[in-house]
Amino acid sequence: xxGAGGLAWxxxxxxxxxxxxxxxxxxxxxxxRAAAAAATSCALLAPAARALGFREAGAAWRRxxxxxxxxARGRQRWRADGRALRKLPVHVGLVVTEEEPSYxxxxxxxxxxxxxxxxxxxxxxHNGIFKRNNSxxxxxxxxxxxxxxxxxxxxYTGEFANHDKxxxxxxCQSTLKVLSPEDGKADIVKAAQNFCQLVAQQQRTHSDxxxxxxxxxxxxxxxxxxxxxxLKFGPVDSTLGFLPWHIRLxxxxxxxxxxxxxxxxxFSALHHYAACEQRWGK
Length: 282
Fold this sequence. Notes:
The protein is α/β, with parallel strands linked by helices. It is built from 8 helices and 5 strands; from the N terminus they run ααβαβααβααββα. β1, α3 (103-116) and β2 (120-125) form a beta-alpha-beta unit.
């Protein structure tokens, strides 16, 4: 019995050792396959990750412009772009029909308008968010003037008049107005009421009412020319009450969104405007 028991014990021991060796071999095989799979995945994903990184970096540059050290180059580029256009709008309206306006993206659009030489800029959203938070928008514009153009405009009103160090006018002599629906139809109603009062007081007659008279009575755009171009952002096919009296001869270009908009998208719209033939109602 003892001899048979010893033989059985040795056989069992050998079987256990064989199982342990098989287990180690299987684990080593699995680890090798996992490492190979990881290496393959890294090899496949690395180009995509690099491409994604380049695209994100490129998009950030287009949205924000060059680094601070390249502000002078950015100014030169944008001024050259403005001069290269066959015609440049004097007054551009930036109309947001989206529900959630972005202060940073709108500030970029305003600063780009200034940089290419546009003299008047109007900002409008149909909920009046920008106008209610006017100081926040102004702060963002000043910040981006510094970042994109290298300008320090810590003191501001509603107008921006700045010169670079060479004395060249940057047409950040742009005048900015932030508007809301109350500056549209409501302003026309108020102008009509004021005119009726003048007629009742015999200071005017009904025959005095003409285009120039109404322009003078409209307080929201006093001193502003009519918009040459409106850039409308969002899916709504309407300007949603933006200066209805003033845009009767305005060119309107629709863009999908103002969110994450690039300088190339903005300049493409200006190029489209420069190429269009305006018949002025003829």
